[in-house]
Amino acid sequence: MPEDSINHINFEELNEKAISAPLVSHIYTADPSAHVFNERIYIYPSHDIDSDAVFDDLGSQFAMEDYHVLSMDRPGSEVIDHGCVLHINDVPWASKQMWAPDAAEKDGKYYLFFPAKNHDGIFQIGVAISANPEGPFISEPNPIKGSFSIDPAVFKDDDGKYYMYFGGLWGGQLQRWRTGEFKADGEGPLVHLPADHQEALTPKVALLSDDLLQFAEEVKDVVILDENGQPLLAGDNGRRFFEAAWMHKYNGKYYFSYSTGDTHYLCYAIGDKPYGPFTYAGRILEPVVGWTSHHSIAEFEEKWYLFYHDSSLSQGVTHLRSVKMAEIHYDENGKMITLEPYIGIKILD
Ligand code: FUB
User: Fold this and answer.
1) Mind listing the pLDDT tens digit for each residue in 135-161?
2) Which helix (H) or strand (E) holds 325?
3) Mutate-to-test residue for ligand 1 from 46, 65, 260, 262, highest number of ligand atoms within 8 A of CB
4) Does the annotation mark 31 as catalytic?
5) CATH code, 167
């Protein structure tokens, strides 16, 4: 969302029309990854803070230093903040910017997956472990070998296999890995991006090892196709992947969802296998207040919920966001009904 349009928003009216309120307001939280563990809803968000970092298109202002875990008995019940569960000072390999995390459970242990910049300024993805879903988590000494970029989302399939989806453009550095090696040359978010007529950069996926601490295979491309079976193009900004990957399964189909970044939509694409390909299927959420849009999807007692964020509590400050949740619905063909975050108010035309 253009920064100058924030001046035109009446936040009192916007909050009245919002389909949901921030789940917590004592801290800023974003990028919610929700899971149901032991019949309780756990949310693993980023913990947004104000900082002296410059405001730029590489997201330097997202200078987060730790993670909190939120949980609740059920939708609408009291939300507990379990406090700081992992701090960057306790992650030997990381230097700054603890961005969107996710979590998974296996054999009674809980794994927090998180991106951060290493000491060379390159994003990688790490793992931290706890005996409890609410942490605290102890970090592994090194990041996942061969990991890069941001926004890990770990999906457990019905056969017990775990896959990590990840990647993000601009500040998330995915474009710098086009050749398989990190290209450090050039400055700014647009360096190394494909031209508009070329195929869009793809998010990534890898099967995880049995202990969930490493990739068990080479990283693969997640291809998103258009209605003609062709890969989406880089210039298709309203539909192509930007960041915030998520996977859920509905009626036996794989739903890969993501943010389109600079066009501010949450979209999804449907496939028959965890690796895809996926065919673009539509929008989940229209633009929210704030530049970023990021989400997860989880089922609780046979209802489906979208966990997302906006910057309404901070009155539009891009890097001070608040986690929210709203019920989602599917039509009889499995199409997700697009949510408007504020009834009758469009943030973008
Ligand atoms: O929170 C920092 C970054 O902003 C996330 O990693 C992106 O998905 C975007 O929400």
Assistant:
1) 999 999 999 999 999 999 999 999 999
2) strand 322-328
3) 46
4) yes
5) 2.115.10.20
